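FYI - complex with adenosine-5'-triphosphate, inputs then prediction.
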Amino acid sequence: MSMHSDASATATAHQLGQEFVRAEGLVKDFGQHRAIDNVSLSVAKGEVIALIGPSGAGKSTLLRCLNLLETPDSGSLAIADKRIVFGTGQVKRQQVLRLRRHTGMVFQSFNLFPHLTALKNVSLAQMRVLGRSEKEATERALAQLDRVGLASKANAYPSQCSGGQQQRIGIARALAMDPDLMLFDEPTSGLDPEVGAEILAVMRELAADGTTMLIATHEMEFARHVSNQVVVMVDGAIIEQGQPEQVMSAPAHERTQKFLSAVLGR
Ligand SMILES: Nc1ncnc2c1ncn2[C@@H]1O[C@H](COP(=O)(O)OP(=O)(O)OP(=O)(O)O)[C@@H](O)[C@H]1O
Ligand SMILES: [Mg+2]
């Protein structure tokens, strides 16, 4: 079929490409507690997925598993043409680094280096991990800072930046690595609503540019209007997923209904 009717004009308008992340049967235990319980998830190029669910559901842990900041106990993860099967012995450091290179992570707590300027925060990993020259890394860092509206803060230290600005530096740093997939872990929580809106605006632009994103969020309006797909996690498992309108207006699962009425207050 060459043409699709534009049924999702209210959501993002870009076309979805090929599947390039596939997690299958992921399990992660912390002692007796199963934080990730047999999770399978596939992400297509250009897709924007909102990951929602109650506190403790396992959203952060899932993102960390996809970035291999946590090593799943079993299951498999394929990104692009590389695949790791977990639980069959020690995962090699080299494999982890190769897979991780495809993802960029934005944390709730920014995780910037306090002793480095915004520019250095954004250029350092490009040089260390990707082997870019200082000149190239600096140029790209400036371009990404500009993209998030912070060209003027290039030489400022994190302590001289507001929370929202620090978060935008974190986004620029992740983007500068040219990831195929951006992982966001509640990038607006802890920020006041006005500043949060600033971050959401940046993310909306990224979505419109076709950036592939998986976003753990409590921002239901954002999930509804910006994502192509909403994934609902409860107790470590994905209980429901689908188009935002469907999941948020007519959830199939009773637990989703309960969660949505609690957060939406209706
Ligand atoms: N390093 C850890 N050690 C032990 N337990 C952990 C660890 N990290 C997470 N957990 C537990 O795993 C479960 C899932 O936590 P996770 O942080 O992934 O939830 P979440 O959905 O991100 O919650 P929130 O919305 O509050 O951020 C929780 O019960 C949590 O206490
Ligand atoms: Mg979390």
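The pocket of magnesium ion (ligand 2) is lined by residues 59-60, 185-186, 216 (CB under 6 Å). Strands lie at 19-30, 33-44, 48-52, 74-79, 82-86, 103-106, 181-185, 213-216, 229-234, 237-242.
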